[in-house]
Every structure is written in C-alpha cells, then in structure tokens.
Amino acid sequence: MNPQSLPTGFSAHVDTFTAENLPSRDLWPKLNWNDPALAYPTQINAASFLLDRAVSERGWGNRRCVIAGQGDLELTYGELLAAANQIANVLVEDLGLVPGNRVLLHCFNHPWAVAAWLGIVKAGGVVVTTMPLLRANELQKTVDKAEIGIALCDARLMEEMSKVTGDVETVPFGGSGAEDLMVRAASKSDSFTAVPTAADDVALLAFTSGTTGEPKCTMHFHRDVLAIADMFVPVFQPFENDIFCGSPPLAFTFGLGGLVIFPMKVGAATVLTERPGPEFLSAIETHGASVCFTAPTAYRGMVSSRGEYNLSSLRTGVSAGETLPEPTWTSFYEEMGIPLIDGIGATELLHIFISASGDDIRPGSTGLPLLGVEAAVVDEEMNPAPDGEVGLLAVRAPTGCRYLADERQSQYVRNGWNITGDAYLRDQDGYFWYQARADDMIISAGYNIAGPEVEASLLRHPDVAEVAVIGVPDETRTQVVRAYVVLGQHAEASDGLASELQDFVKNDIAPYKYPRELEFVAELPRTQTGKVQRYRLREQATTHR
Question: Under a CB-based contact definition with an 8 Å cutoff, are residues 217 and 146 in contact?
C-alpha cells in the first residue's frame, strides 16, 4: 500500500484550523507506514490509547505513574486517568472547548502538567506546550501563530502569561484559588469518553525557532504520538518496573517522549523535576531512577558530581538534543558502567529517528535508522553521497515535517525527504556519524538557540548599534553564544555595560539564550553587499580561544 494513500479516518475536529493550515500534500515528506508494528486504527485518540487502556485493559490502575521530584505529588495510572478526565470536563463544560481548538499549556515538568496534556488531547484539543522560561513576547508569538483561545498555565508562571494580549482565556493550575484548574476539576466527574479523533487529526503543535528566530510550528498527528514509542522503545528496552527521569522540558518533544509517552507505553513510572542540576540529580538518588533522558552536558555533570549523589540506580541513559562526543561517552561508561544510547531527533519528526543500543553502539556514532526509517547522506542537489563523504542528512520516516502555514516547508522537505540541516557521513556499515550543523543554529547544553533571535534582542537595547551572534566551541556546553557588539556613538564599552546587555537579554527572551561571551568591536566584517560575514567571526573566535 502506498503510505500516502493510507485509509483516512473521519476527522473529529469541529474547529478545522489545523487541517486548513497543513501544507499541501505535494509538500509532505514520504511517510513510511508499511510495517505492521506501525499500523493503527483509522480512529484513535492517542491519550486514550495510552492512559485508558493502561487502566481498563492492562490492569495498571494501581501502579505509580507520575511522581513530582520534590515529593509533593504522586499519581497512579488510575489517579492520573481520573485527573485527566476531570480536566477534560472543565475544558468542555466550563471553557467551551470544541475538538480542534488549540490549548496552550505553559508549565514546568509536573504531574498536573501531564494530567492537563492528556486531558486536552482526550477532549479532542490540540495541545501547544511551551517552556517555562519563555517571556511574554515569545508566548505572544505562539498565541498569535497557533490562534490560541484557551491557556492552562502553572500558577507560578502567570506573571509573564498575564502580559499576553488577545482573546485568550487563561486558567492557572497548581494554586489554591477558586478559579484554579485543579480546584475546578475536583468538582467534575472523573469519567470522560475520549473524542474519537482520526489517526491523522492533529494532536499537538510543537514550536521550533529554527535558524531565523521566527518560530516554526510543527504539526503532529495522534498516530505520530504512538509511532515514536513503537519506533524507539525497542531500542532501549525499558521494563515495567523502571523509573524514568530526565531534564528536558515537556515542551521539548525529546522530553515529551522520554518522560511521558515512553514510560506510559510500558507501564513504568516517571519522576518529573522542574530544573536541571542539583534538583535533577537529587531526584535520581531519592527515587531510585533507572532510565534517564537528557543531553550530553548533563551526563558530563553526572560524572563530575558522582561523589555528591548516589546515582547507582541508573541502568540506561539516552542522550539527544546535541551531539554526544566520544570522550563524554567514554568517561561516562568508565565512571558509571553504562553505555549511553545516542540519538538524533528533530521537532519536525517529533522524536529520535537514528540511534543504537547495546552491542550495536559505536562510540562517537549516532547509530542506525530506527524501525520504518530510511536515512541517506546527500549533496545540495539531492544526489547520494558516497559512504565516507560528508553531506546533508536526509530522512524518510513514519513521522515527518508538516509546518503550520509556513513557506519554509519546501526548504525542509525535498523530493519526499526531510532535510534536517545536519551534516553527516555514513560509513560502509551503514552507521551515521554527525559532523556539524549545516546552518547557524547554536546548540548549547541541549538547547537550540537561533542567533538572529539573540541579535534582535540585543538590538532592542538603546546602546547597541549593530550585533552579530555566533556559537563558539565549549567543553562543558558543546557551544556557547558569543555576541559581537558595535555600540552607538554615545555609549562606552565596559565590563559593566557587557553585564547590563547580558541581563537585558535574559529579561527579554528565555534566559538560556543570553550571550555568555560578549565582545565590543568597532565594526563587523561584511561583504560588499553589506552582509555580515559570520564565518570570519567563527574563524577569529577559533584562533583566539
């Protein structure tokens, strides 16, 4: 059967916004749905498939499911189902949600956030999860692009959310007021029949800034949510008595899969921490976590902090978000005895699509294509590159890029292939080896940071006349943001001004994007046509480090 002509279910979306803003079919990547393991009913609700079946069919109702790292809340599968159903009833009965409405979920990693995510999807809503560090102007872009009408917001994040304009009904959760979501949910029925969405109804929108700083919104179906588990769970082979943990926010699809979808797939539990660093490491020790999803930076931190925390419960580590250097893999293995599982994923494909585990691991290599995935290395004209030669990574998989109303769709998808923007080579055994980003994306401690967005923030400061931002190598974070700043005529360079500019960025956009290195320069290198020559700045940075 041609994957593009798979049976299509009847859409349950009354609000047809997402369907109307999908790219035209000729701009979709080829979707590989031929494997029987990836065959799903034409009508399926991903949240109900994961949660209702866990209780009603698999008998997992009394098993622990989600645990707050701080120890303030723990929910079994049965309790999580009841909470998700009550939230769905609030959404429908009190907030007027109809299937297809987009619902913003602005949250920390917390059990109530997971309950809200599942409740939104069960009610037929399209969930749009955002990172807790986002500022009001970044949230505004999300609200405007996705045409959000309802927002569920952690009570501790309401200050920024309250600055967002537009016709958005915002409900806090995790507080104690009468309008709090969980207070309202407590009076609702704990039964809710999931909306019978089509397998290819949109279940979630995930935003990625890309290389331009202008948000791109990826659209993923209900069956995509299920497919990433069927593709990747066989790689790291978790057990039902595992306790998952990780540092990525639920707004990162890496975190959504590793901390919610995958443990629920096998009936395991997950510990949710709100901040990386000591809180995260302490939670591993306290709860005896055994499966970890995080970035290489965190694994390096575990090695250096092993004497401070008992991490002996860990047996599996999955690394993604940035390339896993061979020295990091080796030091972690030598210190912890755990062969880290590397993987490359993309928001556009929802989760990891190349990886390897066990005896298939080759340190320094990303691995092999997963179930249903075809991967190739090609040149700019889409011609296959010989094994051993560097080119662009091209992928066809069960999931793929579908941008929401964005002309950049034709740049990411070419001839049915997803072009991820990564430079790779494939060896003669079919293993894929990461070389570099093919664009100007800065990857720092697992976060994707778009240089132009940082430039735009700095240019909002009255003392900045011109600026160029690049990523420079860093042993701890892989890369850090460096800004080259040309000051206005009345400003004087100083350490104090440099700190002021860094703080300005922290308060303007998400703090992790701020330039950790900042240099004042008289002018920026430019071409004759006026374009900034960032490659010259990179060369200069490499020479001076």
Answer: yes
